[in-house]
C-alpha cells in the first residue's frame, strides 16, 4: 500500500502517512489542511527520469535542452540545471528564467516565430548558445540588430521538414501548412542568407515536428531529412556543428503510474543510428513533456456529485484554468479517486470543473468508484503543459504547489 500526502498551509510542509493508518478523508476531517486544487511534483521521479536520459544518451555527442514551456517551476528547472542540461526557450522571459535557475546562457537555445527586436537584442547580449531562426525576414533582422550592437549572432535554420508526426493537429508542427519554421523548399535561399549576412554565424539545422509522438518512425524519417540538409549545407561550403532535432517524445497517459518513464532508449537509439554527425558537431534535442509530465499530479476535491437527468456529474475544484489540455486537445488524463476504499462499486461520471464553460470537462463517461462530496481525485500526468498553461479565468486563484520525494499518491 502506498503513502498519501498532506500539505500544511501554515509552514508549507508536506506530511506523508501510510495509507493503512489514515485515508485522505480522515485528514480532511482531522485538520482540513490539504489545499486543493494543488499540483504535486515528485522530484525523485524527476531525477530518475533525468538519470534515464543521461544513461540512454551516454556516449553520444549530445546536449539535451529542457523545453521550459512544459513547466518552468523553479525547483524543476534547478534539478534539470544540476544535471548539466541546457534550456529550450521561446521567449526572453524563458531565457531569463533558465539563467536564474542555473542554466548558463551558453546552453540556452531560443526558438519562436515572433521574436521581437528587444528580445533578440537582449538574447544577443546575454550570449545565448543559438537562435533557431524561423523565417528569412528574421535572419535579416537578427543580422541587422547584431551588427548594430557590434556582435555576431549564432544561428541555426529551423526547417519545416514536411513530416507528419501523427499527433493532434494543434501540436503538429512539421507539416507544410504550419506557421513554424522555414519551408524546406526555401532552404538554399535561407542558407545563402545565413552564411553571407554579416551579423550571423551559421551553426546548423533545427527541426521540431510535433509533440506526444509515440513511435520512432517520425524521428527516423526526421534523421534522414536532417542528414540531407546537413550534406547540402556542407556541399555549399558551410560548416555544421549544431544539429537540433527538437522535442516531441510522448508519454503514457493511459498507464502513468505503472509506466512513468518515456522510451528515451528508443528515442536516442533512433538518433544514434539515424544521424550522420560531422566531426566536432553536437546533436541537440529539446525535450519537454517526456521530462516532466509524469512527475506531476493534480489533487482536486469533489465539491458536488450532481445527478443529471441522463448523466452523473462529478464537480471538482480544479478546472480548465489548472489543466486546459482536455478542453483544448481532447486530451485524456487518467483520474483516480484516492478516497474510495478498495472494492467500492463503480459508476460512470462526467468529471467537470467549476469554470463557466461547457468545455471545462476533464472526462466524459468516465468510470470511477462511487464518488462522494469531499473525495480527493488525482489527475495524473499533469507535470507538463498544466501549470504552465494555467490562467486566472473567472478570477480563480492559482493552485498551490507541493513537492514530494517519491511518495506514491494512491
Ligand atoms: N521544441 C520546440 C521548438 C517546441 O515547439 C516544443 C513544443 C518543444 C521543443 C517541446 O516539445 P515536447 O518535448 O514537450 O513535446 N501544449 C501542448 C504541447 C505544445 C508543444 C509546443 N511545442 C500539449 O499540452 O500537448
Beta strands, count: 19
Distance between the termini: 8 Å
- Share of helix among residues? 25-40%
CATH architecture of the largest domain: Alpha-Beta Barrel
CATH class bucket of the largest domain: Alpha Beta
Category by helix and strand content? alpha/beta
Q: Spans with pLDDT under 50 lasting ≥5 residues?
A: 16-32
The largest sheet, given as strand count, sense and whether it forms a barrel, is:
8 strands, mixed
Number of helices: 11
State which percent range the strand residues make up.
25-35%
Average pLDDT over all residues = 91
CATH superfamily of the largest domain: Alanine racemase
Give the overall form. elongated
Overall number of structural domains: 2
Radius of gyration: 23 Å
Listed once per kind, the bound small molecules are: ligand LLP
Give the SSE string: EEHEHEHEHEHEHEEHEHEHEHEEHEEEEE
CATH domain topology of the largest domain: TIM Barrel
Write the layout of secondary structure elements.
Elements: E1 3-8, E2 13-18, H1 24-31, E3 38-42, H2 43-56, E4 62-67, H3 74-82, E5 86-89, H4 92-100, E6 108-110, H5 117-126, E7 130-133, H6 136-148, E8 153-160, E9 182-183, H7 187-196, E10 200-206, H8 217-235, E11 242-244, H9 264-274, E12 282-287, H10 289-292, E13 296-307, E14 312-316, H11 325-329, E15 335-337, E16 346-352, E17 361-369, E18 376-379, E19 400-404
The structure holds ligand LLP.
Tell me briefly what this model is.
With 410 residues, this protein is α/β, with parallel strands linked by helices. The protein contains eleven helices and 19 strands. The protein has two domains: 4-42 and 294-404, Lyase, Ornithine Decarboxylase, Chain A, domain 1 (Beta Barrel), CATH 2.40.37.10; 111-287, Alanine racemase (TIM Barrel, Alpha-Beta Barrel), CATH 3.20.20.10.
Amino acid at each position: 500500500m502506498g503513502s498519501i500526502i498532506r500539505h500544511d498551509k501554515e509552514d508549507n510542509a508536506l506530511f506523508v502517512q501510510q495509507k493503512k493508518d489514515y485515508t485522505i478523508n480522515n485528514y480532511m476531517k482531522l485538520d482540513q489542511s490539504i489545499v486543493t486544487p494543488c499540483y504535486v511534483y515528485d522530484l525523485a521521479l524527476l531525477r530518475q527520469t533525468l538519470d534515464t536520459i543521461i544513461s540512454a544518451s551516454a556516449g553520444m555527442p549530445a546536449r539535451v535542452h529542457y523545453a521550459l514551456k512544459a513547466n518552468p517551476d523553479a525547483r524543476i528547472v534547478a534539478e534539470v540545471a544540476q544535471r548539466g542540461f541546457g534550456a529550450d526557450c521561446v521567449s526572453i522571459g524563458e531565457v531569463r528564467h533558465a539563467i536564474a535557475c542555473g542554466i548558463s546562457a551558453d546552453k540556452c537555445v531560443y526558438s519562436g516565430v515572433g521574436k521581437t527586436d528587444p528580445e533578440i537584442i537582449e538574447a544577443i547580449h546575454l550570449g545565448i548558445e543559438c537562435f533557431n531562426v524561423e523565417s528569412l525576414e528574421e535572419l535579416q533582422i537578427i543580422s541587422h540588430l547584431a551588427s548594430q550592437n557590434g556582435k555576431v549572432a549564432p544561428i541555426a535554420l529551423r526547417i519545416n521538414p514536411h513530416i507528419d508526426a501523427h499527433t493532434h493537429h494543434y501540436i503538429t508542427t512539421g507539416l507544410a501548412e504550419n506557421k513554424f519554421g522555414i519551408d524546406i523548399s526555401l532552404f538554399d535561399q535561407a542558407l545563402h542568407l545565413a552564411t553571407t549576412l554579416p551579423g550571423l554565424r551559421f551553426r546548423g539545422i533545427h527541426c521540431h515536428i510535433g509533440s506526444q509522438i509515440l513511435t520512432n518512425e517520425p524521428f527516423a524519417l526526421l534523421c534522414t531529412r536532417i542528414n540531407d540538409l546537413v550534406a547540402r549545407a556542407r556541399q555549399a561550403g558551410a560548416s555544421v556543428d549544431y544539429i537540433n532535432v527538437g522535442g516531441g517524445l510522448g508519454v503514457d497517459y493511459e498507464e502513468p503510474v505503472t509506466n512513468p518513464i518515456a522510451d528515451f532508449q528508443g528515442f536516442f537509439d533512433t538518433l544514434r543510428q539515424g544521424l550522420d554527425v560531422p566531426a566536432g558537431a553536437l546533436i541537440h534535442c529539446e525535450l519537454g513533456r517526456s521530462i516532466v509530465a509524469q512527475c506531476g499530479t493534480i489533487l482536486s476535491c469533489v465539491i458536488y456529485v450532481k445527478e443529471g437527468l441522463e448523466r452523473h456529474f462529478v464537480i471538482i475544484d480544479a478546472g480548465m484554468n489548472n489543466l486546459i489540455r482536455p478542453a483544448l486537445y481532447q486530451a485524456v488524463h487518467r483520474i483516480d479517486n484516492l478516497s474510495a476504499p478498495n472494492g467500492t462499486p463503480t459508476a460512470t461520471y462526467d468529471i467537470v470543473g467549476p469554470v463557466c464553460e461547457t468545455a471545462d470537462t476533464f472526462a466524459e463517461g468516465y468510470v470511477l468508484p462511487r464518488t462522494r462530496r469531499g473525495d480527493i481525485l488525482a489527475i495524473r500526468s499533469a507535470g507538463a503543459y498544466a501549470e504552465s498553461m494555467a490562467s486566472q479565468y473567472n478570477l480563480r486563484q492559482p493552485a498551490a504547489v507541493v513537492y514530494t520525494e517519491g511518495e506514491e499518491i494512491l
